[in-house]
Please model this.
Amino acid sequence: MTAPDLECRALTKRFAPDAPPAVDGVGFSVPSGSFFSILGPSGCGKTTIMRMVAGFLEPSGGDILIRGRSVLSVPPNKRPVNMVFQHLALFPMMNVAENIGYGLRRRGTSKPEIARKVGDVLERIGLPEIGTRRVDELSGGQKQRVAIARCMVLDPDVLLLDEPLGALDLKLREHMKVELKALQAAFGTTFVYITHDQSEALVMSDAVAVMNRGRFEQIGSAQDLYYRPQTPFVAGFVGDSNRWRGRVTRVDGESLELQTDGGLTLRAARNGRAIAAGDRAEVFVRPEAIHPARDAAALEGCANMLRGEVSTLLFNGAASRVRVRPEGAGADTEIEVALPQSGAFAGLARGDDVWIGWTDAQAGAFAAAAAE
Amino acid sequence: MTTAPKHLKLTVAATALLALAQPAAADTLRLLTWGGYAPEGVIEMFEAETGHTVEVTLSNNEEMIAKLRATGGGGFDLAQPSQDRIAGPQEEFGIYKPMDLSRIDAAQFIPSMLEATKDNTTVGGEVYGVPHVWGTSGLVLDTAKAGMVADYTDLCAPEVAGQVSYRLRRPTLIGFAFAMGMDPFAAYGDEAAYAEILEQVESKLIECKPNVKTYWGGGDELMNLVRSGEVVAAMAWDTGGWKLNEDNPDVTFVAPASGALGWVDTFVLPAKGQADDAAYAWINFVMQPEVAAMITEVAGNFTASKGADEFAPDALKAKYQASFTPEALDNIKWYPPVPAGLEAIEGGVLDRVKAAN
Amino acid sequence: MTGTSARLGFVLLLAPAALWLTLLIVIPHIDLFLVSLRERIGVGQYTTSFANYGTFLDEPLYLMTFARTAIMSVLATALTLLIGFPVAYYIAKLARGRTRSVLFLLCLVPFWVSELVRTFGWMILLRETGLVSSLLQWAGLAAGPVELLYNDAAIMVGLVYTSMLFMVVPLITTLDSLDDAVIEAGYDLGGSAPSILREIVIPHAMPGIVSGCIVVFMLSLGNYLTPIMLGGKDSLWFTELIYSQFILRFNWELGAAFGFVLLLLSSVIVWGTLRLTGQTLRETMG
Model:
């Protein structure tokens, strides 16, 4: 078993002695050739981790290993790690070929070798003819690929990407997601990708770490994070959820009953987490886990069944939803429900009476103390 | 330069208006002169007595001529260049107008001086200038450290190496020529002979250059150099030496063995002067002995006013007598008018001295 | 209708500048050029010829002074750049917040007093009985008084001091516009500090370097006070020649010719520098 390409151990960074740490004891390892993302809201410390790995910041504690070797004492220009910057940071004073050849020139590679390697990498990113173009003549997507090529030509052990899609418009961003993943697969290099955009992380990554307040909440595959969140933060941050707070009235094995602050009685699963009767808890339910029905009979097998009135229609093609205000709950309680793509409920209108229901397994409960 | 004609027009307009309102004609006298020649007190007295107002612009010989040349003799009503700088520029540029001697009170002047200046400033039969202030240039020495310096050429002696200063201007060329036993004034009329004299002076000055600390440019600069003790022997004006003497009794003005160089600053009327009445009034006013003595006190130099000596400060008289023995006084070399074109030869020499290593 | 009024507005906006240029720059220059073409053939008599320019070329002293002025100005410019660049880099890239404004202000402070006073300041420091000389003696580094004034080094010090701001400001502006990430990218891709300076920072700052150099060079070339006051007996500066021709020799014709030669020289050197560095005037000034 070879060492992972990148491993961080109890990595900590404090910018001031009395301030809370920006990065607090984070540990993870990225296996060779995989696409690893760190997902978190802005200010969570993900860029700090990236800059420590690249060598621009010195950790206050912990260790960084690349292929099993600590790189703490290695300056940034000697680390086998390269970075694609948020605004790409292409060298405006050089043309595309010079940009890509920069690192090779610094290594003392011979001129013909540089020309060959630059030609190769341009070929691989699908832009073989642009070597002599000026950087400011490129389109956003081309710049993106050149920035990656500039790093890849050096054959780094790990490529760091710091929200490189942030500056692109939506359509191009969607396109580049796919392309990035394909490039990564083609080069076979380990990518560590930072983003606050969950869709970028979920689409491209083999593994995603969700980060909040300097700590990793959960590391796992996209499916793990989406379907099996381990913390309320992950449950709330990844994907959309209906969310309730309340007091647990009864615990029955893995299943529990909760009285929400809005006055609803719900059944949820505790998935092995320690929650006892009388605790305060939070329950998350995804909109697509909730089934709409014309009558209660259609919802057989659902532990939770509510009757309500459609308050808002959110039409968005295949991803259309409705908001339902359940009977017996406060006016501010609304439940978002995904409409089945069969089109069975296409005729639903505002004010219509509907039944909604979901199984208790689809409703994850978390102890509220941990949520604060 | 562009503002001068406008200024002129305004003044003309203002003068015309004033002339209409006041037949007695109170003018503004625009006086182009040296520092110290028009003290505040004198101006106040003059304005009170005549009703004219005085605007003073301070300058030096070269700049006075340059200013007048730029406007063809306009912008000022009365100027005070040295007497040797009148005939040449007048022939070349026509920047002055003749004096009406009948409007000047000749009795107030020392007769010999008035006659000499009239001779020196006559062009085409017309007299252009009358004398005002006179003085000399010679040696300013720290007698304790540079007592051996008796003439300009002694400034090149090893005893004072690196502690000497003089100006790189024409008085230095003339002074060195005399000290080297030649008579440059006699050669004024003969360009070739003059050039030959200057050639010798040039090689002397180049030879002397390592001895020089710096060529001084302004009076203040020289005063600082001597006062700080960095310079112990310099070629300078008599008043500079007397002023330094007040701070340090060792320092004084010494007439060089070959003779001090005497200059006379005059009154001339610029060609386009607008206030001749006020100009003549000013000349007659400042030449009164009491007023002339006030100017002597400020400027440090004596005037061509007859009888003003009586009113001059005793301390200044004492310094003057200490610097000038009767023989030294007789030996003063008065600058004759500079023929047009000599400056070009001198300029070449000065440039080469400056460039020499 | 709108086109006409827009054009009228444009003309009105431009009028003061055009008037200023014509009255104070173009007309005097034409006049001066005509003066430079006059040759004095006798008392008050002139003819038109290039004799004054001939005099300039014939007299080795004038050519030498000219060359000396140009070389010293180039040297002063290079020195200013050498000293100003790290200062500008520090202010633009390393200093933050208050420190930054304070440092910038410090560069500006010398310009609150007139050039004459500044030059006198240097004279007080450098003269034989001055501060530096006394300090050296006090520290035992010099046996007797040291004269630091009245030589070319003193001129250089004065010129560099006078020009510093005009180099630092355009440098700060261009360095400021260089994204820090670009420098980091340089390190990240294996660049060392000298190579990043050479391949990234300097090429980026080139417009600022060139415009700073042009301004400093012109200021040095056209400086009069500093060389005269600090340079002493060996200070040969071309502006001094122009002054002496105009004021001391009454030779406006030659003075005007000198003026035009100086104009030509500075234009040629600026043009040459732009060509050599591959910059255009538009990039540099825009």
